[in-house]
From TrEMBL:
Protein name in UniProt: Cupredoxin-like domain-containing protein
UniProt keyword annotations, A-Z: Signal
Domain of life (superkingdom): Bacteria
Annotated InterPro entries: Cupredoxin
Segments for region (Disordered): 26-57
Presence of keyword Signal: yes
Residue spans of biased composition, Low complexity class: 26-56
Record bears the keyword Amino-acid biosynthesis: no
Annotated signal sequence range: 1-30
Length: 141
């Protein structure tokens, strides 16, 4: 685990500042956190019956020889879902979850895990900063 808290879900107001510091190549134009200010009112009229399980969702990708395998592409995630993102790489790098602005150092051969709650609707790229590789896109909604 990184020594610094990479980003608390409650600290949404600081996202743009922190993202600028990480020197990201591209930001997600699809991300519109301003629309998420009242998520509960958008939940509709059918509350508890269709609620997703609380067991969480595990997303795993592996990077080897510059190729990404596993849960690549666009991964759908329900809003409010507990997500564990596991990344294994054969080279050192830094993984970055856009929008949520979570980062983790990758040590070659050692899985890095990022656990968070998908509270922000939108499509967010998960990227390797050194390689500039997009591992997958989280589609939260
Ligand atoms: Cu990034």
């Amino acid at each position: 685990m990184p020594l610094r808290p990479a980003g608390l879900p409650a600290a949404l107001v600081g996202l743009t500042l922190t993202a600028a510091l990480t020197g990201c190549a591209g930001t997600d134009s699809a991300a519109s956190p301003s629309t998420a200010s009242t998520p509960s009112s958008a939940a509709g009229t059918a509350p508890a019956s269709a609620a997703p399980a609380t067991s969480g969702q595990r997303i795993e990708v592996t990077v080897a020889g510059g190729q990404v395998s596993g849960d690549t592409g666009r991964v759908p995630v329900p809003v409010g879902q507990q997500v564990t993102l596991a990344v294994t790489s054969d080279v050192a790098d830094e993984v970055h979850v856009h929008g949520y602005d979570l980062t983790a150092e990758l040590v070659p051969g050692e899985p890095a895990e990022l656990a968070f709650t998908a509270t922000i609707p939108g499509v967010f790229e998960v990227e390797l900063h050194d390689a500039g590789t997009v591992l997958l896109s989280l589609q939260v909604g």
